[in-house]
Every structure is written in C-alpha cells, then in structure tokens.
C-alpha cells in the first residue's frame, strides 16, 4: 500500500471477545498517554470484530507499545500490533483513497476519451489491415491466373513456349 502510516495510531489484532475499549486502554496505558481507543463493531452481532485501534499522544509511546505488545498475550489470545493505516473512504484513482469520489472526475473523463479514441484507432487499423489483406489475396489470385494462362498457352503452342523461353534467356 502506498498510504503513509499513522505513527501514533496502532492496529491491535487478535482481541478476545471479552476485551472491550476499557480493557484495551488499560493494557496499553503503561506505555504512555492515550488519546483514543476504538474497537469497531460488527453491525450484525454488535460485538467488536477482533481488532481495535489505540492512538497515543506521542509517537515514541506508540513505538514502545508496539515493540512490547506485538506477540503479547491478552485474555489467552496472542496480539498482533502494527502501525495503523489512515481511514479511507471510497473514491479516488485506486478505488480507495483519502479523498471524495468526485475528486478525480476530470481524470476519469479524460481516460474515457482516451479509451474511446484508442478503440476508434484500433478499428481503423483493423479495417486497413483487412483491406490490405484483401488486395494481397486478389493480387496473388491474379498472378496465379496469369501463370495458369501462360502454362496453357505454352502447352497449346510449343513454338510460343520456345520463343518465351528464348526471350527470358536473352534478357
């Protein structure tokens, strides 16, 4: 991912069902002053989704907490602690970005026009290739017809065949 990480917000994964925001806060407060703790809820069950976010006031505190708590055990479950990525909203050039969906409307229209132009050019090129192939086939067919006529002329008239061969040798 090309998104910058938030150095004072930690992702905490592998949370047991019993862990709530108060318990998560208590587990991480020894490392420094905490600004915010969130455990996103599953809409269907209204329980957290086995992960949460802890935001420290100081980056150094977040780094210390990550170093000490990654791989630690809480309520019988091993925690995964990493720096969190910023919240994202749908939209932008890559499908998800920290900008509204309409922010890249101009570039979308530009890409659409470029794609249409490319398709038009490809269609013209295909038509030109088909026309060239048709002309080539007609030319080959005409040459074959000419060879057949020459062959039939020489078979019918041996004197004409000898004259034609003599002319070819002299030139």
Automatic annotation (TrEMBL):
Residues 120-132 have a biased composition (Low complexity). Pfam families: RRM_1 (PF00076). Keywords: RNA-binding. One of its GO terms (molecular function) is RNA binding. Residues 133-147 have a biased composition (Basic and acidic residues). Coiled coil: none annotated. SUPFAM superfamilies: RNA-binding domain, RBD. Residues 118-171 are annotated as: Disordered. Residues 8-86 form the RRM domain. CDD domains: RRM_PPIE (cd12347). The keyword GTP-binding does not apply. PROSITE patterns: RRM. This is RRM domain-containing protein.
């Amino acid at each position: 991912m090309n998104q910058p990480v938030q150095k004072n917000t930690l992702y905490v994964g592998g949370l047991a069902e019993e862990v709530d925001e108060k318990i998560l806060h208590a587990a991480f407060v020894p490392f420094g002053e905490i600004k915010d703790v969130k455990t996103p809820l599953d809409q269907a069950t209204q329980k957290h989704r086995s992960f949460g976010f802890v935001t420290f006031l100081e980056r150094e505190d977040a780094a210390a907490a990550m170093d000490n708590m990654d791989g630690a055990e809480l309520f019988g479950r091993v925690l995964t602690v990493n720096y969190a990525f910023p919240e994202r909203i749908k939209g932008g050039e890559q499908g998800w970005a920290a900008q509204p969906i309409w922010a890249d409307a101009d570039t979308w229209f530009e890409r659409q026009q470029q794609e249409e132009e490319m398709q038009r050019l490809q269609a013209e090129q295909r038509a030109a290739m088909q026309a060239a192939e048709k002309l080539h086939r007609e030319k080959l067919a005409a040459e074959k017809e000419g060879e057949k006529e020459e062959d039939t002329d020489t078979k019918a008239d041996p004197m004409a065949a000898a004259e034609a061969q003599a002319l070819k040798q002299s030139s």
